[in-house]
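ok, trying the design again with the full structure, not the truncated one.
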């Protein structure tokens, strides 16, 4: 039943250090649900009943929340192998805290949380490793949310842009890179208007700090980015 997704799931951090046969047994024990979504279709809706930890095995999704003004803020863009909803597995919350939208046609596998962190009636040896991996994922997600808060509290649009581009620069190790977000998605992620974002990017280009074309960016002056306000 799950053979088609074995290779994709082996790349998922939740199943790190699992051999193929161990992963196959684990899936038969957990019995995840496979769901298919069209582009722009809702995968989850905030306040709806929580139905399990989601793993994107095909396509892309975006995780969104509404800010105090009722505007949508993009929290993350997830690709094949990425997970969402893992922090809720260890909480008493039974409702989704964020809305997830398919940005392309996609396939998502939902894992019932009670079969991950609960007692396994089959005594699967892989459950201990699975819980270790889950705790590692939750820790990384918490750090990622702290990073997101930093973006939201910064007032300067230029400072937000600079920090984001520096992050991509350090991640790729190259001055030229593709960012994973489209221009409107980047504006929502940084919690700024798209026109304001575009104006600031053009200013930074004119000043010789960066160059860009669509989602491709080149950092020309790293020090200027580091000291921008």
């Amino acid at each position: 039943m799950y053979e088609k997704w074995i290779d994709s799931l082996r790349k998922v951090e939740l199943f790190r250090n699992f051999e193929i046969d161990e992963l196959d047994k684990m899936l038969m024990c957990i019995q995840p649900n496979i769901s298919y979504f069209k582009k722009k279709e809702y995968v989850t809706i905030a306040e709806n009943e929580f139905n399990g930890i989601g793993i994107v095995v095909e396509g892309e999704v975006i995780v969104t929340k509404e800010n105090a003004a009722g505007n949508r803020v993009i929290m993350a863009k997830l690709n094949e192998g990425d997970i969402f909803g893992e922090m809720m597995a260890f909480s008493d919350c039974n409702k989704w805290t964020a809305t997830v939208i398919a940005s392309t046609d996609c396939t998502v596998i939902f894992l019932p949380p009670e079969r991950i962190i609960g007692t396994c009636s089959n005594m699967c040896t892989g459950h201990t490793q699975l819980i270790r991996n889950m705790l590692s994922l939750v820790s990384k997600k918490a750090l990622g949310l702290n990073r997101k808060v930093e973006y939201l509290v910064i007032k300067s649009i230029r400072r937000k842009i600079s920090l984001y581009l520096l992050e991509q620069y350090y991640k790729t190790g190259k001055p030229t890179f593709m960012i994973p977000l489209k221009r409107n998605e980047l504006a929502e992620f940084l919690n700024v208007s798209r026109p304001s974002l575009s104006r600031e990017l053009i200013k930074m280009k004119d000043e010789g700090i960066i160059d860009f074309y669509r989602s491709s960016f080149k950092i020309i002056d790293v020090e200027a980015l580091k000291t921008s306000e």
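Keeping the full-length input from now on. The first strand starts at residue 33 and ends at 37.
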